Amino acid sequence: MQIFPDRSIFVYLHRAIDLVLPFILLSLITLLFNTPFHERYQIMGASAGVLLLLTSQFTGVYTNWRGRSIFQSAKLIMQAWLITWAILIILAFWYKDTVNYSRLAVTTWAIFVMFILIAYRIAIRLALIYLRKSAQNHKKIAIIGAGKIGKQLAKNINENPWMGYKVTAFYDDNPKILNQKINDIPVIGSIEVVAEDTKNIKYDEIYICLPLGADLKIKHLLDELTDTTAIVKYVPDLFTFDLMHAKMQDIKGMPVFSVFDTPLSCNSSLVIKRLEDVLLSLLILILISPILLVISIAIKLTSSGPVIFKQKRYGLNGKEIEVYKFRSMTTQDNGSIVKQATKGDTRITPLGAFLRKTSLDELPQFINVLQGKMSIVGPRPHAIAHNEEYRKIIPKYMQRHLVKPGITGWAQINGWRGETDTVEKMEKRIEFDLHYINNWTLWFDIRIIILTIFKGFINKNAY
Residues of the signal sequence (predicted)? Predict the structure, then answer.
């Protein structure tokens, strides 16, 4: 969750520039190369601006920008523009329209747009840093409460001096830290002297970072601070209920914290995710259809039983779904007790061992994706028996069902795939699953898909 809102004049400035910059630069580039700026170029320039606006929104360019480094910002901008440019190129090939463009002009344009997008943002950031560092009018801030949340807030503020704020003092009732320094910030006194000091020292802003249980102390403090001219802000102790990644929204003036949520709860994100799933799964199924046929014949010839194994698992919102796999075992466990595959498991057929090791047994799940039961990227679906077992012993386990299960996922490409013979291994898998759910973007999905190609198919833990 953000301490400082990201809705500033610069966010809207960036959006406005991003919308018109591709069109303006394309017109200048065509002029430079003596190429007529005809209707096709005009459509490309206008489309690029709209697409850039959308991809920047989905990749997170416009959010959380205040506490982000220049390198991180540049990386997000590059991602957004590369996705935009890729979409434009694919559309041009799809409509066989590439002959209407100069390859040199379009390539030069793509490079210059990315360079200018990054350069002007860096220029604004450097100008802000210079102005605020050279000026002697930083807003002086005092933080009441030198606990975990107070320390984190002070660190966030003082590490970003370009914002124009500086934490100059802590106040806390803990006698052990009075007159001490925390990260070079002195603990000046107890909470009782804050109001008087504010009148004398003239802090510009006061941040109250006391625990939720100190409601009476907070109320008394607020009453005393009404006799000062300082701006007073309250920072709730988000660590108490693990709300550091919670989102806040406003419902007619009432702040509401979204404690368990995901970017995929937004309708526009769901549409993007579904388009991604349908288009990619169709393409992949067409490409791998010969492989599917060969594997099906091989399974039928080497062991008795069905080619496809259907297992009940939990899908979106914990609803039961049937997940398809190539049969790799002599048994088809699908009841209240399901034993995980282990090294040297006698139930696994010789062909099945190869299929499981290379993840080829998962290929039929692209059909599940087309059906809308699964997604290409998401937490791997577990057998219902395992869900019921782990939901009782691992906190937040069921939060992984806030999104559709996936064929590949953030946990899998980070090595948390295959047998989970200890609770600790499953906890680690859930940790990576929840990170994906909390931080989903279209680019995150693309990144996982690309990494899966190089490191996600074969894994030493898959039996």
Answer: none
